[in-house]
Input
Amino acid sequence: MIVKMLHDKGFKAEHAYTAGFVSIGLSIASWCGSMKLEPLGVSRADRWGIFVGEWAPTFFGLGLALAQYERDENTLHSVTH
Output
């Protein structure tokens, strides 16, 4: 249901994959930034890096679901036309 809604709003599998790769970069950037800017050091930086790093698998999973939905939709259209 969510995958169909996202697809209907124009969100494609490629967008989700891109968001996954961007979140990996953000995870590294947040870890590095926290290491330099936070007075609490490595433990706080690790928590920030892990928090943002959790987004990547979510986006990749969403990308796989969207890709399957798009493939199934294309198959359905080719059969009916």
Observations:
- The radius of gyration is 18 Å.
- The chain has a mean pLDDT of 86.
- The longest helix spans residues 55-80.
- The chain has four helices and no strands.
